[in-house]
Specification:
This protein is of the alpha+beta class. The chain folds into two domains: 289 residues, Zn peptidases (Aminopeptidase); 114 residues, Alpha-Beta Plaits. It has twelve helices and 18 strands. Strands 3, 4, 5, 6, 7, 8, 16, 17 and 18 form a nine-stranded mixed beta sheet that branches. Strands 9, 11, 12, 14 and 15 form a five-stranded antiparallel beta sheet that branches. A hairpin with a 5-residue loop joins strand 3 and strand 4. Helix 1 packs across helix 3 and helix 10 crosses helix 12. The protein is globular. The two termini are 32 Å apart. The protein binds zinc ion. The site of zinc ion has 5 residues, from loops.
Amino acid sequence: MAARWIDPERIESAIAALAGHGAHGETGVARLVYSPEWVAAQDQVAAWMAEAGLRVERDAVGNIWAYLDGRDREAAMVVTGSHVDSQNPGGRFDGALGVIAGIMALSELRERFGQPERTLAAVSLVEEEASRFPTANFWGSRAIIGRIAAEEPKRLRGYDGVTMAEAMRDAGLDAARIPEAKREDIGTFVELHIEQGPFLERENFPVGVVEAITGYRQYLVTLEGAANHAGTTPMDMRRDPMAGAAEIIGGVVDTAHRMGRPCVTTVGRVNVSPNERAVIPRQVAFTVDARSPLPEQRETLLARHEALIQEVAERRDLRLSLRVDSDRGPVRCDPETVAVIAAAAEAAGVPAMTMTSGAVHDAMQMAEIARIAMIFVRSRSGISHSPDEFTAAEDAAAGIEVLARALHTLAYRP
Ligand SMILES: [Zn+2]
């Protein structure tokens, strides 16, 4: 194999150095947004950016930007980056690899080609995972697109009881200034991220070129019946929400299975009340998370789920509340940028597979203000959000070279 632009050993040591901030066990990381570990990680990132000869800037929400200024200062920027926070605990590659990739790519481009035509930026986004604040996800990218509501910093409370505004203050930031982080100068955003799924490994490709990011809808389904004695209430006289929940849960999972890839449906949380062995429950509440990157398939999937939920509740005489907690259509990557990435992979001699993303990413937020695309790098056994997450340094080097070559095409041509 030809020598990569970036030495895999350098990537390995950068990943290990960043993982030292918030280290959890042997290979895990617990780096929650605005915590002391997180501050240390962002400081480390800023130091690397400066060492690479880039102009470094911190914005009002805590994102760190590194610029390789272009000749044409009026032209929209070409930006790459990812997030530096982690699950609690998560692995050392999720987000972190994309941040390191951005710095290394810009540093390499600067050394090889000097000043670009358009300004290139690498960004280390503050928060993606919602691992400290349950509903804060995409805090960094939402600030950039101007989608943080004024009351959110005081309203959002973390699992530790601290509000977002307080957490920001602990990290030396002022929540009142969040609107200053909004930008309108980004033309293209390319995010490199670990795949977090099994496809690249199974198909034996080190790198994936993402064509679309999944759309999703998340429901909270609450079924209410009548609590009663488990021994004395005949089956035909029950209003049993557990029986209804079981039918719905089995049904939605089966629907997604029968409709086939790429749609997926998951019931990940169930609350039973009163949750007693000898009592027919009064209420069962559960989540349904349904996704597909194909707009029509998503619509069909959601319609079937909703019809089943209504039908079961009605037939079993259960009171139904069907709440939509989040809803987002699929996002298509910009076809031209996707083609640039595919060509970059070919030029680098990196076998790359086109694919969709079943996970959501910061790039999805950025799509509101910029053309977006994503580069995936193979995950071992498809494992992520776990200390067992692993990506080989050679695969990471292949991905970063594809990123650097794509950024070169996007930012250096007149
Ligand atoms: Zn991530």
